[in-house]
TrEMBL record:
<protein>
    <recommendedName>
        <fullName>LysR substrate-binding domain-containing protein</fullName>
    </recommendedName>
</protein>
<dbReference type="InterPro" id="IPR058163">
    <property type="entry name" value="LysR-type_TF_proteobact-type"/>
</dbReference>
<dbReference type="InterPro" id="IPR036390">
    <property type="entry name" value="WH_DNA-bd_sf"/>
</dbReference>
<dbReference type="Pfam" id="PF03466">
    <property type="entry name" value="LysR_substrate"/>
</dbReference>
<comment type="similarity">
    <text>Belongs to the LysR transcriptional regulatory family.</text>
</comment>
<dbReference type="GO" id="GO:0003700">
    <property type="term" value="F:DNA-binding transcription factor activity"/>
</dbReference>
<dbReference type="GO" id="GO:0043565">
    <property type="term" value="F:sequence-specific DNA binding"/>
</dbReference>
<dbReference type="InterPro" id="IPR005119">
    <property type="entry name" value="LysR_subst-bd"/>
</dbReference>
<dbReference type="InterPro" id="IPR036388">
    <property type="entry name" value="WH-like_DNA-bd_sf"/>
</dbReference>
<dbReference type="GO" id="GO:0006351">
    <property type="term" value="P:DNA-templated transcription"/>
</dbReference>
<feature type="domain" description="LysR substrate-binding">
    <location>
        <begin position="95"/>
        <end position="294"/>
    </location>
</feature>
Length: 313
């Protein structure tokens, strides 16, 4: 067989292209070093071109080999996708129950779940809202997205991204109570805050490297996102920790306006978590890691949009 038809050789070349030495690459492929050396030599002979510069230590790819690395990556990725497709066809139907905070964009997750269904058609994903790590340990869900970093006892936790918020109020409220121009002015205002069993309570505001205590006259509502949003739209106070995505339409339409631009509560540290015992569930782990990376990308895109809209720096 022509060496170029051996995908394992191309996987070896890809690893060398990523900066790994041939010894490290051979360990990754679970092959001994002499076997990898022979594979490369055979590929060089079949292709009629040098792939490894043997005069450098550790051995490195030649300029010619470096030029074909993008095509090599496409080949190995396509092969990996083929194996995934075969595995999904072989796999039995399964159900994953996951929880997403209400304060986070639902449309982004819906799109991601629809896309993943194409990768694993027999996997059903049921979405719940606002479960915490204790609910996860009590088996109310298989995977949870959390706005905080939970204790890791019994859990596998993956940090995902930092989420930002803006202060906002209805125009009617500001006409009646005045527009605060600095955080200390909030001592004359009514605030709307998030609260739940493990939700990180807001007690200070940040702007760049500056931080100040959160002042207020009264807290008119403290609780869930939906009720807090209703209080905001009703002109009952200034919301402090509703996510931008949860009030994006209202901000665009003018139903609510940003207050104290660039001041916000401390960023949430959004994480994904499963029970540690679930690490043996390869489909759950694969989905969790895939979703984590996709949402990290989606959030970066959303935040770039919010910066262009003037909500964030």
């Amino acid at each position: 067989m022509n060496a170029a038809d051996n995908l394992q050789i191309w996987s070896l070349i890809e690893k060398l292209g990523s900066g790994k030495g041939i010894t490290s690459a051979s360990i990754d492929l679970d092959k001994d070093l002499p076997a990898c050396t022979r594979l490369i030599q055979k590929l060089e002979n079949d292709l009629g071109m040098k792939l490894i510069d043997h005069h450098r230590r550790p051995a490195q790819l030649t300029n010619e080999a470096i030029q074909i690395i993008p095509a090599v990556k496409k080949l190995t990725k396509a092969y990996s996708e083929l194996l995934d497709a075969v595995e999904s066809v072989k796999s039995e139907e399964a159900l994953i129950t996951m929880s997403i905070p209400v304060n986070i964009s639902r449309s982004s997750y819906r799109k991601s779940i629809r896309l993943y269904k194409k990768l694993d058609p027999k996997l059903k994903i049921q979405v719940l809202s606002d479960l915490d790590h204790q609910d996860l340990l009590e088996r109310k869900a298989d995977l949870v997205c959390l706005p905080y970093h939970p204790p890791t006892d019994g859990l596998m936790v993956w940090p995902c991204y930092e989420a930002r918020t803006v202060l906002a109020a209805a125009p009617a409220y500001l006409r009646k109570r005045g527009v605060p121009t600095s955080p200390k002015d909030l001592s004359d205002h009514s605030l709307i805050l998030r609260a739940s069993r493990h939700y990180p309570m807001t007690n200070e505001l940040h702007c760049g490297s500056r931080s100040v205590p959160l002042n207020y006259r009264e807290i008119v509502f403290s609780g869930d996102v939906l009720s807090g949003k209703e209080a905001l739209l009703a002109g009952e106070g200034i919301s402090v920790d509703l996510s931008i995505s949860s009030i994006e339409k209202e901000l665009k339409s003018g139903l609510v306006v940003q207050v104290l631009p660039y001041w916000s509560r401390p960023a949430w540290h959004v994480t994904f978590a499963i029970r540690r015992e679930s690490l043996s569930n390869s489909r759950l782990v694969k989905f969790a890691l895939w979703l984590k990376e996709r949402e990290r990308t989606n959030v970066a895109i959303r935040f770039d949009k919010y910066r262009k809209m003037g909500f964030l720096r």
